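Changelog-adjacent note: as of this version, every example in the card shows the full chain rather than a window. The one below runs 308 residues end to end.
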Amino acid sequence: MAGKTRRSKLILTDENKVELEQLARSRTAPYREAQRSAILLGYHAGESISSIGRRLGMTRLSVSKWVAKALAVGPMAALKDNYHRPREPVIGDDAKAWVVHVACSKPKDLGYAAEVWSRQALARHIREHAGEAGFPALSRAAKATVHRILAAQPLHPEKIKYYLERRDPDFETKMRNVLIVYQDVDLQNAKRAAGEPASSVITVSVDEKPGVHAIANTAPDLPPVPGKYPKIGRDHEYERLGTCSILAALDLQDGHITARVEDRHRSRMRYGCRGFRSLIVNQSPMFKVWAHCRRFALNAESAGSRQR
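Full-length structure tokens:
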């Protein structure tokens, strides 16, 4: 007959029991956590150390270890292993700071032709200059070592993220004017949807894509042939026909797009907006047009209203 244990009872809250039961049944959680959860649930239910060990295929000493830890630090903390370091790190914080400093510098400032660092090039530079920088522990640093140092920050000197610098001091004012135009369009569209009379102003958003390469085929395309050629065949050679500019105006009321293709590119202010304004007015003579060109500001002359 088994003697009565002298250990304290393990107190589990309802939340602890639910979490331990989920871990014990889980197929994706680490096996050690699932095993320890089963130990704590069995001990909480009144099962003896020996019977728990026989049921889970563990020694009595191992079961006693995790039960004692749960009684000391709590059931959830007992599922994790204590952090331990076998020896002091060879690469100190000052050496890691130097690696980060080098990674934040541009390679061309250090005599390289590359624009950005690759992990391999950065690791090679670290190894070659670690001694003269006073960090001999980094003289044999591998790419994985440099990667771990940068991942702790985290830093990605091999990647570029573009940003837009604000060079226009009147940017906030121009942005506010553009947002007011779009808000007015929303109000007019809401009135039209409700059957109420709305303004006869047509608001278009104009944009352009200059420098588009115009190319032509030198041989006709070959159609697909069932069972033989599943795709369209096209000759690799082509003829260059210069460049052109594609301009498009989106009607914000009905979504209609008016497009133009021009083989000459002039000023955005004169060429893009005025050309579209005349085109749209000719198509809609009973309306007045307020043209809004995206990505650049309009003056009163190029963005005025016109009545036909």
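Structural remarks: The mean pLDDT is 83.
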